[in-house]
Amino acid sequence: MIKSSVLKQLSSIVENKNFYTSQEDKITYSYDGTPLLEHLPDAIIRPTNKEQISHIVKLANKEHFSIVPRGAGTGLSGGSIPVENCIVLDMSQWNKILEIDTENLTAWVEPGVITSQLHQEVEKIGLFYPPDPGSMNICTIGGNVAENSGGLRGLKYGVTKNYVMGLEVVLPNGEIIICGGKNVKDVAGYNLKDFFIGSEGTLGIFTRILLKLIPKPQTSKTMLAYFNTQSDAGKTVSAIIAQKIIPATVEFLDKTTIRCVEDFAKLGLPTDIESLLLLEVDGHPVVVEEEAAKVVECCKRNNAIEIKIAGTEEEAMRLKTARRSAFSALARTKPTTILEDITVPRSSVAVMLEKIQVISKKYDIQIGTFGHAGDGNLHPTCLTDERNYEEIGRAEKAYEEIFVEAIKLGGTITGEHGTGLAKKKFLHLVSGYTAIETMRTIKRALDPNNILNPGKVFDL
Questions:
Q1: β-pairing verdict for 275-283 and 336-339
Q2: What is the CATH number of the domain that holds 392?
Q3: Which of 15, 102, 192, 348, CA to CA, is 20 to 30 A from 27?
Q4: By three-state DSSP, how is residue 378 classified?
Q5: Are residues 68 and 149 in the same domain?
Q6: 333: Cβ–Cβ under 8 A, 6 or more apart, which residues?
Q7: Domain boundary among 215, 241, 267
Q8: Are residues 173 and 28 in the same domain?
Q9: pLDDT digits (tens, 9 = 90+) for 369-426
Q10: Contact of 132 with 152, CB cutoff 8 Å
């Protein structure tokens, strides 16, 4: 526990109104979006400027307490769960879009900006920020960078790291650096910003983020394709890519997820089908029409039983609701929802879907699978009850087998949620011990006192 004298110093740095130690506040910050993980912090601090953060970090090195940076707390791998002897550094109030530069197609933002807020602001002027995590209406840009978040548009447009041009970072020693900038080309020295992207709050604290923007696509076409087997849906994904078409979106929902979504959102989805694909192509109107026709043909060749094409933007948004509400719909079914995150090569999606079904039956647990089938990123989601310890044990064994099967197919244990606390014991399966020791070497060099988000990703 942090000494009371140190807590008084922290309170004086940020003023009492930005310093919280009540039991109610501690409970509020004791968990994130990850089930089955929680821990009370010693205090919660809301800094108002980077100098305060620097001062706090230097004090942490002197007094040997830990700092856990936090945005909206929507993470799904335990990355913002407090640890022993720590404060939570709440950055959610850092929510300003500082600049939108239309000449250089960039935006400077604070880390607490809500992702969908940035979407709305840049699209008003005909620009586009593609990364769109499923939690985009509540997650923050700082969290997206810390986890290198993906989203529904990842197949065509990439993930968060593809749009980070620069970072202002408070280092683990309290010093402040800016790495990157508005230059399209810059190879002066090491590419430090890429060290911080996806580092899950273990190497630095973001105070400003420079993002790349692109022109907004002129038009788009959204479709839903229904299938009687998961295998047919998986084969359709491979067929579309083989046609050299890169849709903006190729999303998958299985039968369990479809039924939950229909019960939740009342979209008129058939509940007797085994799977569906949400597909969207965007760009120049002529190209969109050509690609949409080819996508429809691929679906038909792979036994789609029905294809619905949105005729208006409102109808397109309604079709997309089928995917965006998947997690919320599944979470209503049982008290505990364990949302996992694996990625396999796109050509192995159909095989992985079959393996998830087999493993679900083997361990007698209910799994609904949805995800970004176009880039091989699937979310097998277990519907359970944490009070049923025996069932939770079976779920843990099932997920371990799912991870192993994904790795056998050339895949990985996480595509966008991060390693955090939840998956660090599996990291060696995909990275190997030598790679983990290399990561530890970097961590020790930058953070010798292990004050920033200790115990996440790996142990020292």
A1: unpaired
A2: 3.40.462.10
A3: 15
A4: strand
A5: no
A6: 260, 366, 383
A7: 215
A8: no
A9: 999 999 999 999 999 999 999 999 999 999 999 999 999 999 999 999 999 999 999 9
A10: yes
**Final residue in a domain of this structure, among 179, 200, 215:** 215
Q: Are 330 and 35 in contact (CB under 8 A)?
A: no
Do 374 and 245 have their domain in common? yes
DSSP states of 203-223 = S-EEEEEEEE-EEPPSEEEEE
**Spatial separation of the C-alpha atoms in residues 137 and 156, rounded to whole Å:** 21
Using CA atoms, how far apart are residues 5 and 3, in angstroms rounded to an integer? Answer: 5
Q: What's the mean per-residue pLDDT of the chain?
A: 97
Residue 154: its H or E element: helix 154-157
| Spatial CA neighbour of 421 closest among 393, 459, 448 | 459
For residue 372, give the nearest of 153, 193, 221, 76 by alpha carbon. 153
Length reported for the chain: 460
CB atoms within 10 A of CB 331: 17
* Residue 143 and residue 42 share a domain: no
27 in Cβ contact with 40 (< 8 Å):
yes
| C-alpha span between 77 and 414 (Å, rounded) | 9
- Percent of the chain surpassing pLDDT 70: 100
184-226, pLDDT tens digit by residue? 999 999 999 999 999 999 999 999 999 999 999 999 999 999 9
Using alpha carbons only, how large is the chain's radius of gyration in Å?
22
State the pLDDT at residue 181. 97
In a domain, 295, yes or no: yes
Query: Whole domain around residue 231: which residue ranges?
Result: 219-408
Question: Binning pLDDT at 50, 70 and 90, where does residue 362 land?
Answer: very high
Residues 267 and 157 in one domain: no
Consecutive H or E run containing 128: strand 127-128
Q: For 159-188, how does the pLDDT look when each residue is reduced to its tens digit (9 = 90+)?
A: 999 999 999 999 999 999 999 999 999 999
* Per-residue pLDDT, 413: 98
- In whole angstroms, what is the distance from residue 438 CA to residue 452 CA? 18
What is the average per-residue pLDDT within 106-119? 98
Residues 31 and 173 in one domain: no
CA pair distance 13, 355, nearest whole angstrom: 53
Evaluate if pTM is beyond 0.85: yes
Residues 145 and 176 in one domain: yes
Residue 342 CB burial class (10 angstroms; 0-12, 13-18, ≥19): buried
Residue 108's pLDDT is: 98
355 and 253 within one domain = yes
- Return the ∠ at Cα 76 (arms to 167 and 176), rounded to 5°: 20
Q: How many helices (H) and strands (E) does the chain have?
A: 16, 19
CA dihedral 436, 441, 446, 447 (to 10 degrees): 70
